[in-house]
């Protein structure tokens, strides 16, 4: 899998508001609109349960979950993201691991596995996604829980909004930033959708510049995601999908 995030890792925090990236964090903060579902899943865990965030990014969800007293481990396929997560979150183990290689050397099995942040879209194909989900199943303890999320790609394609800006400027360490997504859509649903993450930055000296990071996404429907989760050996027990909501999450259990 191509590491789209090698260069973006150091700037990735600009994508999220303070309540997500700054302590104590928000469980499920990388999946806007699904925080209540994540909270419910976490609240149902027994004391001392073990959790793997296998799309940990820069460690935002790991930080929030560790603050709940859970035994949390973060992994990601991007070594740059793992390095940034380890820098930002202390007292937690992080590892670089591709989904299809799970559990690898990770000290599982885990009671709960998260794959949030619209990460599965980077698998690129049905077969690769099923292999990734099968790896997550191997990392789970019997009776464990998997939570995955996604953008609503059908809605995104239908609306075809070219430029999407964050709701506010964010200021950290004296630098102000406005994050924008600039989308390029194919004529019909199915082929890759391109996006550029564009960060408009005002430095401490008042100078304004920008940095841009291109990304490719291979879209899928909620029905396709559900089918692939089931093909990997899970039963889907809950979905927050709504045709007019921008994101959704699935809860599943191994069978």
Automatic annotation (TrEMBL):
Residues in domain Methyltransferase?
Answer: 51-144
Q: What is its EC number?
A: 2.1.1.222, 2.1.1.64
Q: Name one GO molecular function term.
A: 2-polyprenyl-6-hydroxyphenol methylase activity
Q: Which domain of life is it from?
A: Bacteria
Q: Name one Pfam family in it.
A: Methyltransf_25
One GO BP annotation is: methylation
> Which keywords does the record carry?
Methyltransferase, S-adenosyl-L-methionine, Transferase
Which CDD domains is this protein grouped with? Answer: AdoMet_MTases
- Note the InterPro entries from the entry: Gly/Sar_N_MeTrfase (IPR014369), Methyltransf_25 (IPR041698), SAM-dependent_MTases_sf (IPR029063)
Q: What class of enzyme is it?
A: transferase
Q: What is this protein called?
A: Class I SAM-dependent methyltransferase
> Which organism's genome codes for this protein?
Nonomuraea spiralis
Q: What is the lineage of its organism?
A: Bacteria, Bacillati, Actinomycetota, Actinomycetes, Streptosporangiales
């Amino acid at each position: 899998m191509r590491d789209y995030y090698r260069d973006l890792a150091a700037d990735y925090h600009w994508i999220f508001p303070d309540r997500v990236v700054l302590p104590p964090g928000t469980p499920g903060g990388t999946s806007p609109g699904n925080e209540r579902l994540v909270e419910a899943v976490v609240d149902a865990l027994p004391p001392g349960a073990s959790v793997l965030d296998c799309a940990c990014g820069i460690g935002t969800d790991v930080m929030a979950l560790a603050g709940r007293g859970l035994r949390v481990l973060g992994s990601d396929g991007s070594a740059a993201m793992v390095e940034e997560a380890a820098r930002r979150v202390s007292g937690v183990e992080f590892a670089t691991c591709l989904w299809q290689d799970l559990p690898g050397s990770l000290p599982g099995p885990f009671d709960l596995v998260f794959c949030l942040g619209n990460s599965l879209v980077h698998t690129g194909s049905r077969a690769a996604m099923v292999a990734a989900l099968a790896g997550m199943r191997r990392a789970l303890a019997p009776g464990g829980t998997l939570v995955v999320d996604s953008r609503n790609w059908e809605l995104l394609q239908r609306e075809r909004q070219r430029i999407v800006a964050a709701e506010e400027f964010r200021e950290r360490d004296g630098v102000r930033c406005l994050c924008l997504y600039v989308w390029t859509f194919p004529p019909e649903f199915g082929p890759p959708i391109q996006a550029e993450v564009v960060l408009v930055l005002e430095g401490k000296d008042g100078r304004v510049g920008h940095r841009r990071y291109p990304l490719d996404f291979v879209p899928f429907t909620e029905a396709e995601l559900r089918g692939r989760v089931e093909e990997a050996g899970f039963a889907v027990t809950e979905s927050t999908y709504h045709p007019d909501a921008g994101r959704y999450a699935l809860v599943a259990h191994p069978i």
